[in-house]
Each structure stands twice: as structure tokens, then as C-alpha cells.
Amino acid sequence: MDDRKEAQEKLLRGIVDIVRGCGGIILHADRNQSTIDAKAGHANFVTTYDKLIQETLKKELLALLPEAVFVGEEEDTHASIGTGYAFIADPIDGTTNFIRDYRTSAISVGLAKDGAPYMGVVYQPYLDEMFTAIKGCGARLNGTPIHVSDRPLHDSIVIFGTATYYEELAEKTFAMAYDYYRKSLDVRRSGSSAIDLCNVAAGRAELFFELRLCPWDYAAGALIVTEAGGRVTTVDGAPLPYGESTSVLASNGICE
């Protein structure tokens, strides 16, 4: 292994260790001691544990890579990711699931380099599934390489997100979901876009779409899909504007 590759793997291991530790916070959460606050938008919540995990991620990730900036969902202002390294983190992707103990939530950490995706880590603590990717080096689940499926749309599972915070997108979302329902095996909705993207990467489903996601929702998962051989664009087929709120369409490259 050359020095550059070794340094990449060491950095990724460090991120994985930090994220796994935060997964323990989710698993041992006492919901009776957690406050729940509403944010702007329909069914948009933040809990004591979102804030705790984000604070932990910020402290430990910046100690790991001091030259980086940190962009987290629960911050009021966000640093630019255009130059140098930037961690883009969602402390609990699937907060409503977490509140209800639905057990489909994840911690998502993307690392950008000069405004482009560089590393991605998504951890589903309830299943102990750690998805990772380094740009140009493939994607893995718990250390084992993963790849998107080769199933066509009529033999596929389609996952979608409802862009819950943006009620004006609901009608279009469900119209698209119905169209895919008619053309595929079936549709699914989990409540965590990070997990949905990773399930496409692992070949468990063939397509995912959501009409509006923020960078922390897709920063890690989108890279994991592309490194698993998939394709990620906007729903209109344009290149994903990494680092901005956008629609997202991820597929195995066959289903569109």
C-alpha cells in the first residue's frame, strides 16, 4: 500500500471509530430524558440527542483533521465547503424514527475536499451496518465490498422520500411514487435518506428519489452509491450540485 492510500485508510478508520462511538449514544438513549423541539417545516424535529451527537462529531472529527471545517444539520450558520476539507454531518438522519423508536436511523458523515465528495460514512447502529467509501476506491459494508444490482426497473424495488418539511412537494412526490409503483415490483419509504442511498449501493433496492434534500442528507450516501457502481443525479438528470439543497435520484444506472 502506498503512503497516500495508507493515509486515506487511516483517516477513514478514524472517522469510522468516531461515528461508531456516536452510534452507541443512539442505542443507549433515554427518550424520557430527551427534549424535542420543532424546527421550521412540517414534522421537522430536533432532540437532545441530535445536538449531543453533533457536538461530539464536531469535537472529535476536527481533532482528527484540524484543517477541516464542520457543517452540521443542527448549526444556525454553515461554513463554505468550496476550499480544503469539510465534514458534512447529519447526527441523526431519521429523527422522527428515533423519537418513535422505529429503529431506522443513521449517522451520516461526508468529507468533502475542495468542494467535491472525498469520503463517506453512514452507520445504522440498530443493525450495526457501517457503510464506507473513499473516492475512487469503491464502497464497503462492514469492510466487505458492495455493488449496485443489475436489475431493470420492472424487477426493481424503488425507495422514495417525501421531502416532509416541504409540503408543497407532496403531490408531485406521490405522483412519481405511484408511477414507479406501476412500473416496478414495489415501492418503499424508510424515513432516512442516508439509509435509502446505502440500500441502493448494496443492491437491496434499485432506485431512490426525493425532491429536496440538504447536503447533510446525501453527502455521504451519494458517494457510497457512485463508488458502488451506481449513478446519482438530480431528478431531472443533471449533475448533483454537491453542497447545496437539491433533488436526488440515485439508481443502479439501469433504472431511471
CATH homologous superfamily designation of the largest domain: Fructose-1,6-Bisphosphatase, subunit A, domain 1
Mean pLDDT: 92
Give the uncertain stretches in residue-range form.
38-44
Lateral arrangement of strands in the main beta sheet: 3-4-5-6-7-8-9
Plain-language structure description:
- With 256 residues, the protein is of the alpha+beta class.
- The protein has two domains: 3-146, Fructose-1,6-Bisphosphatase, subunit A, domain 1 (Fructose-1,6-Bisphosphatase, Chain A, domain 1, 2-Layer Sandwich), CATH 3.30.540.10; 153-251, D-Maltodextrin-Binding Protein, domain 2 (3-Layer(aba) Sandwich).
- It contains six helices and 14 strands.
- The strands form three sheets. A seven-stranded mixed beta sheet has the order 3-4-5-6-7-8-9, with helices on both faces. A five-stranded mixed beta sheet has the order 11-10-12-14-13, sandwiched between helices.
- β8 (139-141) and β9 form a beta hairpin.
- α1 runs antiparallel to α2 and α5 (193-201) packs parallel to α6 (215-227).
- The radius of gyration is 17 Å and the shape is globular.
- The N and C termini lie far apart (38 Å).
- Residues 38-44 have low confidence and may be disordered.
What structural keywords apply?
alpha+beta; five-stranded mixed sheet; D-Maltodextrin-Binding Protein, domain 2; Fructose-1,6-Bisphosphatase, Chain A, domain 1; 2 domains; 256 residues; globular; 6 helices; seven-stranded mixed sheet
Explain the layout of strands and helices.
Elements: H1 3-27, E1 36-38, E2 45-47, H2 48-64, E3 69-72, E4 85-93, H3 95-99, E5 106-113, E6 116-124, E7 129-134, E8 139-141, E9 144-146, E10 157-160, H4 170-183, E11 186-188, H5 193-201, E12 207-213, H6 215-227, E13 231-233, E14 246-251
